[in-house]
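DM from R.C. (forwarded with permission)

"hey, sorry to bug you on a friday — could you get me a structure for this? deadline for the figure draft is monday and I only need the backbone to look sensible"
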Amino acid sequence: MNLSEHFTLKEFECHDGSVTPKEILPHLIELVANLEVLREDIGVAITINSGYRSPSYNKKIGGALNSQHPKGNAGDIRAKGFTPKQLADRIEKLIASGKMKQGGIGIYKTFTHYDIRGTKARWNG
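My reply, with the result:
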């Protein structure tokens, strides 16, 4: 199932094989709309390391207690030619210009976390 021109539901499915609940889909669609803006800005494909996580899988892998992943609001992403910090900086620019939704940005060694929680949260993993 396509969520947008460049993203499919499969990319965001939980790694434990569980079915994404239908009430999560509107959140994923909003997340993907924001990631499309980023993709257009950087001009390269975005790889999704982790999208939706079932609550049990999130707990199993040590995800944050109030993680945005089980809500369908978050993606851990990579893009060829961009460091996690460079991706985070682009997201910050797009949020500041009103093109992407304010949310959480986490910079990790190999990926950038972005979520659409609606409030500003920043951290280094």
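R.C.: lifesaver. The beta strands are 46-50, 74-79, 104-107, 112-115, 121-124.
me: no worries. The two ends are 31 Å apart (CA to CA).
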